[in-house]
């Protein structure tokens, strides 16, 4: 492991706001030198968790551990983290060129040449104030800060808000290209699961302030599958199985399943049923929906 690849461990993180439990005893580990996706519904606790992991806020209980050292009050470690938030109100009255100078002075691994190349690529005027930027332009400026920081740990909270599909893909391409050249630990929180799935080596689902699921993206995808065919045959096949979702059209039924042994999947295929892969977004939507229903729908 190099200094550009730092691991993160969360040990029992809890956070309350005025009697509301935002995070509850979170234990999680984020592999060094990898791109991680942090996925959760609105209000799940994603931003609260990122604030704590970046040293912007303190947990009521628990610790953030970076490469074996507790983050709290460790300025040396905090300087190794770049946290790109949705928006930055303190920047509103500053010109972009002033903010870039500030980043250069306060970011140990800042790449000025790369930052200016991205300013040109994204067509941002350095003489404009941050407050004059559109929602999408603010996202692009945040992307420049995160990419050019070359920080060993980089967090992006909803990094493509306000961007059209072409600009979102440009950001994804730039992130992957720079990550390949300069490996680091990257954590991205996003609602655009289908299009950002390509980025993630590891996935963490957070739901109602708790970690619901964490693992390698491929391993999680392998646990889900779709099964479709004639209603009677499908209903016989799924008895005793964990069914996340069902759709019916006439006499044809399609189901989304979780954790079915491979030998059973092969037997279904041999019997004429259609077995397919499940998308990460569908798994996320229906796993969290099932969990919420089981808890009575309370937030």
UniProtKB/TrEMBL annotation:
This is ABC-2 type transport system ATP-binding protein. GO terms for molecular function: ATP binding; ATP hydrolysis activity. Keywords: ATP-binding, Nucleotide-binding. InterPro entries: AAA+_ATPase, ABC_transporter-like_ATP-bd, P-loop_NTPase. SUPFAM superfamilies: P-loop containing nucleoside triphosphate hydrolases. Residues 8-233 form the ABC transporter domain. The lineage of its organism: Bacteria, Bacillati, Bacillota, Bacilli, Bacillales. The keyword Nucleotide-binding applies. CDD domains: ABC_DR_subfamily_A. The keyword rRNA processing does not apply.
């Amino acid at each position: 492991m190099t200094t550009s690849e730092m691991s993160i461990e969360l040990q029992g993180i809890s956070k309350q706001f005025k009697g509301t439990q935002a995070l509850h005893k979170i234990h999680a580990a984020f592999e060094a030198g990898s791109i991680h996706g942090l996925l959760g519904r609105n209000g799940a606790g994603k931003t609260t968790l990122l604030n704590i992991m970046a040293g912007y806020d303190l947990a009521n209980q628990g610790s953030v551990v970076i490469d074996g050292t507790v983050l709290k009050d460790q300025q040396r470690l905090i300087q190794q983290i770049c946290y790109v938030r949705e928006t930055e109100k303190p920047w509103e009255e500053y010109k972009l060129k002033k903010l870039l100078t500030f980043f250069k002075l306060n970011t140990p691994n800042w790449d000025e040449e790369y930052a200016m190349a991205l300013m040109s690529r994204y067509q941002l005027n350095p003489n404009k104030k941050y407050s004059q930027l559109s929602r999408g332009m603010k996202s692009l400026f945040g992307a420049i800060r995160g990419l050019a920081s070359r920080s060993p740990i980089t967090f992006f909270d909803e990094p493509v808000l306000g961007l059209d599909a072409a600009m979102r893909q440009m950001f994804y391409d730039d992130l992957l290209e720079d990550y390949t050249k300069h490996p680091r630990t990257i954590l991205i929180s996003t609602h655009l699961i289908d299009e950002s799935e390509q980025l993630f080596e590891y996935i963490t689902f957070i739901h109602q302030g708790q970690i619901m699921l964490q693992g390698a993206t491929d391993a999680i995808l392998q646990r889900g599958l779709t099964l479709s065919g004639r209603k009677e045959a499908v209903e016989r096949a799924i008895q005793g199985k964990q069914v996340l979702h069902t759709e019916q059209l006439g006499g044809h039924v399609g189901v989304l399943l979780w954790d079915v042994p491979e030998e059973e999947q092969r037997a279904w295929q041999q019997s004429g049923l259609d077995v397919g892969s499940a998308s990460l977004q569908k798994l996320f939507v229906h796993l969290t929906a099932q969990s919420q229903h089981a808890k009575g729908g309370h937030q």
